[in-house]
Amino acid sequence: RREPQRQGRRSMEPRPRVESSGALNDVYVKSQEHLLRPTSENPLPTSVPPPSAGMAGLIGVRHVLIVIGLPERGKCFIAQRLSKYLYFFHGAEVKLFDVAEYMGCQPVDIGHAAQPQDECRIEASANTLTRDLKLFLNSSGEAARRAGGNMTVPVPRNCQTAQARAAERAMAAAREEIQNTEQHLLVDEADRRRKNVDSGKVAIIFTSDGMGSFYEKWACTSKERRRWAAETIQSDKRLGAKVIFIEVIVNSAKLMEQNLLSKIRHERRLSRGAEARDSRDSRQSREGEENARGIAVPSSPATPGRPTRASSSRNHGYGSGYDWSAAAAEALEESDDIPPRLVREFHARVNRFARVYVSLQEDGSEDDLSYIKLINYGDKVVTNNMHGYLRMRIAQFLTVVHPTPHVIYLTRHGQSTYNQLGKIGGNSPLSPAGEEYARRLGAWVMPYVCYQQAAGLDSLTKTRLWTSSLQRTILTAQHIPHPIISEEDLGTPSVPPEPDADDALANGDSPTRCSAGRSSGLRGTPPRANGLRERLRSGGLSGVVGGVALGGIDLDSDRGGGGDRDRVWQQMAPRVYRNLDEIFAGECEGMTYEEIQHSFPSEAKMRATDKIGFRYPRGESYLDILARLDPLVHELESYHEPLVIVSHQAVLRLLYCYLTGRTRAQAPKLSMPLHTVIRITYDGWTPPTEERFYLGPECSQTDGQTHL
To answer: Do residues 372 and 63 lie in contact, with contact meaning Cβ atoms separated by under 8 Å?
Structure first.
């Protein structure tokens, strides 16, 4: 049973076993359903409209992606992120297959020859995974049957109305005309052509135990196993599936140390969580015994100022082939120094694997295979025999994915004048409460965002800022400073005082850390480094806005270029993206929901039944927002720096669901409260966790956007 969500930090943990993202329940939006029914004017209507953005899937093609590589390279994380991306933004049905879950018994040690009984077990586990894989690829659910509706002549039943009876007579005449050609026009349900009308299926095969599953056939750790996997899929013509191998190669010592440190921290947190839960269970058992004897046991008070974390004794991360819990006990939880013994042991284990592991060959012997070599998480990408839409989308996405920590801050704009009036859309300015939030956000960002935990201290970190093109988000971010910092400033920790009394957080209104909008009782601002603040006051650093050059240096460029650009950085350089604009309500812009219900009653009713797919008259739907967020997500995934996004409710709902692993059908129902910052963190071994900060001031949350 899952642990209940606790106050403070919440963990969105992916299940470690085989899982499927699934596709949408339908192949078209519900608000189009009334247009697909036969009428006297159109007795033979289109049964299924063309796919819209976000529901097109992968044009019906089936793919099997096999992720391979040495241990501790982040293969499980890459499989998870790729699965979420293909489902969330393309509507594909994706299922993960963990080879380690199919082993079933003690694995064969690396370096030892497999015994006959081991070979029988390996063959049986390979057959089981193959069976489940084919069942998934061949499955045809209700969505697929409905998607093939255009290949079947519709026959209405139990017609009651005169209009329906007229439609039936018209269809009877039409059927009589095509009676002799019907078998040439329709496609049988078992035909492969019919299978390619659904949203497409993607099976992703990976292993969470690279060491233990080395000899498994689907681990594809040798040329022979890869050849067997490709032939197994391609020999079954009914599947119509394409095989792509994705090899994760990391030869950077710095990246490997980061991966190992993240893994140790994750295992250490899991171990401490298990210890705390065992202690709690023991205490509850003791309390029960003493209460039964009539002895009063005082409750343990919560530690003030420390939000608790939801954790589990099981590994809910992105895979663990080796239990680091005992070894990691020697390491400090937040230290950047790894005990030398752990490093030596890690390299010894990986070297044993590397001696028998065979990488994808570029000598021509495997040129007929489709594969991607991902070297150092996108620093270099080698592709072979990659043709087609999905293959190139996968290659593009893999160039930006990396398992190093991601820190994303989501916040809505401050309260606007339209929020006060309950109106939707428009380009209104901030209300007085919204202006106050903008000042508080500007004061909050420097100590809470620009300084991140490193080596147990808060150190100055490069940060980024995105806003939409609407004035209420730009005005919300106007007080966020944009100082110029140098490489010498980065990573320098110091112990600061509280923020100044003249800051926007004065008058006792310090930020409140909360979960799902509920206060956890944490008041006050924790110590943060003040080195940068002091240098700003003394004139040691220059505050620059909008990419203004410093000493002839163009600071508006993101990366690379060499020279002085590599030695300076503009903090929170404002980037304005129209992709982040609020959902466009078309003819309903500037109206309240009461006015919409009065002026557009049928549209209001359809939107209530299909919030994600309904498109405002001459406006947008949530699926349209997905299409314009897709390129921004590629940019977001590539960042190593913390990112602050100031946007709008509908847009942030979708980003929040994608980042935390929720389904997109949940997005329209979520609440994104005003004057609150949501901090989401994840890396290659730690599932997404969120932490909320309410900055105030108090304002009505019934702002007309609840039903947006």
So the answer is: no
As a three-state string, the secondary structure of 518-569 is EEEEECCCCCCCCHHHHHHHHCCCCECCCCCCECCECCCCCCCCCHHHHCEE
Alpha-carbon distance 407 to 681, whole Å? 5
Give residue 610's Cα distance to chain centre: 23
Interhelix angle 75-90/389-398, nearest 10 degrees: 130
pLDDT tens digit string along 510-532?
A: 555 554 433 333 333 333 444 44
The answer to whether 427 and 445 are in contact (CB under 8 A) is no
Model-wide pTM > 0.90: no
**Above pLDDT 90, what percent of the chain?**
35
Q: Is 246 exposed, middle or buried (0-12, 13-18, 19+ CB in 10 A)?
A: buried
- Cα gap 428→416, rounded to integer Å: 6
Please give the C-alpha separations between residue 292 and each of 18, 283, 285, 328, 694, in angstroms, as whole numbers: 44, 14, 11, 40, 43
Which residues on adjacent β-strands are paired with residue 57? none
Q: What pLDDT is stored for residue 701 in this prediction? A: 63
For the record, the structure tokens of 639 come out as 């960042």
Give 168-210 pLDDT, tens digit per residue.
Answer: 666 666 655 545 444 444 445 445 444 445 557 899 999 988 8
What is the distance between the terminal CA atoms of the chain, rounded to a whole angstrom? 35
Distance CA 497, CA 527 (A): 6
**What's the maximum distance between 2 C-alpha atoms anywhere in the chain?**
90
Beta bridge partners of 62: 201, 241
Distances (CA, A) of 496 to 304, 439, 457, 491: 21, 21, 11, 15
Burial class (CB in 10 A: 0-12, 13-18, 19+), 365: exposed
Q: β-strand 406-412 against 643-647: which pairing, if any?
A: parallel
Whether omega before 14 lies within 30 degrees of 0, making that bond cis, reads no
DSSP 96-138: EEEGGGGT-SPPPPTTSPPPHHHHHHHHHHHHHHHHHHHHHHH
Query: Position of tokens 């005309």?
Result: 177
Q: Give the tokens for residue 438.
A: 């903008």
With CA atoms as reference, report the closest residue to 372 among 362, 380, 382, 363.
382
Closest-CA residue to 389 (of 200, 615, 209): 200
- In order of 131, 200, 422, the CA distances from 240 in angstroms are 16, 11, 52
Query: Which token pair is 537?
Result: 């006051």
> In the block, which residue shows the tokens 């029914």?
37
* pLDDT at res. 278: 60
* Tens of pLDDT, residues 421-441: 999 999 999 999 999 999 999
Q: Give me 604's structure tokens.
A: 């209001």
**Angle at the Cα of 502 (from 500 to 504), degrees rounded to 5?**
95
Structural contact between residues 662 and 638, judged by C-beta atoms closer than 8 angstroms: no
pLDDT of residue 501 exceeding 60, the answer is no
The predicted structure's pLDDT at residue 676: 95
Tell which residue, 78, 91, 113, 101, has the closest CA to residue 21.
91
Asked if 125 and 212 count as a contact pair (C-beta separation under 8 A), the reply is no
Spatial CB neighbours of 643, under 8 Å, sequence gap ≥ 6: 407, 408, 409, 463, 464, 465, 466, 636
**Cα–Cα distance, 125 to 216 (Å, whole number):** 8
Token pair in block for residue 9: 């930090």
Contact of 191 with 81, CB cutoff 8 Å: no
On whether the CB atoms of residues 377 and 295 are closer than 8 A, the answer is: no
